[in-house]
Design brief:
alpha/beta, Rossmann fold, 2 domains, two-stranded antiparallel sheet, 9 strands
């Protein structure tokens, strides 16, 4: 008598097995669900509402990629940030939820008087600029980055969001050569010290130039701080991301350039950005 074929794995079982392999992640079950939804071609909510379907053949390959510490955003090709979804991949820094603090700080500064012109220095895949343009639909902006790969994603994202007429992008080195003044200047510089240890999914996959900034993590702030006063329009502000222990050092750099700064914290209670004004 022929033995019965083994039962095909169910989605709940496949998710549990995948999550068990992702113990290195802070969100192993979420990672597994996002990969399953991606393999099925549905969003995560649809997966959770209807898990009674066959495990798609492509799921196993996605699990192997994540087990090798590849970022979820690179595997699925997208990452949500603020109110938008952004295409991301190799060569572009993955947007972090903590960076949404910069948008929150900008909204607080411009309460009742939206900015008209926005500059995003180190725009990556357009993260902060496109989130700001979604928040202020009458504004226009310019995104600057030293990476052509990142700007390819930024232009694609602007088109996908329907704001390509409001968002321009250019290669550049922070604010060098920019003569215009902006109501809002956003910046997420590299701020990791070269000797610091990072998770493998960051260290081995994301662009080092977008992460590391010298022995103390402050090299790019030293370049950026003296440029900001000339970029900020009257009544405007620069909103700059910082590492959790860098507030005092970056505030001092800004003060030396004639700028006042106040600190905003992220949802975890960590110092996350400075709002600098002239």
């Amino acid at each position: 008598m022929t033995a019965a074929a083994p039962a095909a794995p169910t989605i709940p079982a496949a998710l549990a097995a995948a999550a068990a392999r992702f113990a290195f992640s802070a969100t192993p079950r979420l990672d597994a669900e996002l990969l399953m939804a991606h393999a099925l071609g549905v969003d995560r909510n649809a997966l959770l509402l209807n898990p009674d379907r066959a495990v798609p053949p492509g799921f196993a390959a996605l699990v192997e990629r994540r087990a090798a510490h590849e970022p979820i955003a690179y595997i699925t090709g997208t990452r949500g940030f603020w109110s938008i979804d952004l295409a991301v991949g190799p060569g572009a820094l993955v947007p972090r939820a903590d960076s949404e603090t910069l948008i929150e700080a900008a909204i607080a500064h411009f309460a009742g008087r939206p900015p008209n012109r926005i500059l995003d220095l180190g725009t990556g895949p357009g993260t902060l600029l496109l989130a700001a343009l979604a928040e202020w639909p009458e504004a226009t902006g310019l995104g600057i980055d030293a990476s052509a790969d990142a700007l390819t994603y930024a232009r694609h994202n602007a088109a996908a969001l329907g704001v390509e007429a409001r968002a321009a992008f250019a290669l550049g080195n922070w604010g060098e050569g920019i003569a215009e003044r902006f109501d809002l200047v956003l910046a997420n510089p590299p701020y990791v010290a070269t000797g610091d240890q990072l998770p493998a999914e960051v260290r081995d996959y994301e662009p080092a130039a977008a992460l590391f900034a010298g022995a103390d993590g402050l090299d790019d702030y030293r370049l950026l701080a003296p440029q900001l006063a000339a970029l900020i329009a009257p009544g405007g502000a620069a909103v700059i991301e910082i590492g959790a222990d860098q507030g005092a050092a970056v505030t001092a750099l800004l003060a030396a350039a004639g700028l006042r700064a106040r600190t905003f914290r992220d949802l975890g209670g960590r110092d996350r950005c400075l709002v600098a004004t002239t």
